[in-house]
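Render this sequence as a predicted structure.
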Amino acid sequence: MILEIDAKVVLTFKRLHEINASLEDIKKALKPSQTLEVNAEIIKRITPVVEKAKEDVEACCLYVERLPPDATIELLQKVFSAFGKVSMVSLPKYKTNKKVRIQMIVCFIKIF
């Protein structure tokens, strides 16, 4: 399991590339993190990774349909966080027109 990554690699990620993020931006963003730290140009995980059993992960995830076409990951995280701490939101888009599909998956840290 990878516990560190070169910040130069992270800077190639689409979203960071689009906003012209710099190494200093990453350092500033991660400074308050209790999970990640930046040493020189390496981003390291400082807390151990606790892997869940596959059954636990599947039990924490919901499949949701009939989303509004203007749904965003941020909005869905806000809505579903009322039910528990959200660990992941998957909001697929059509490749042809980039519009949101009508279904998504949301996963929580714990089974509620």
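Summary. The helical segments are 7-10, 14-18, 23-30, 54-59, 73-80. The CA atoms of residues 35 and 78 lie 22 Å apart.
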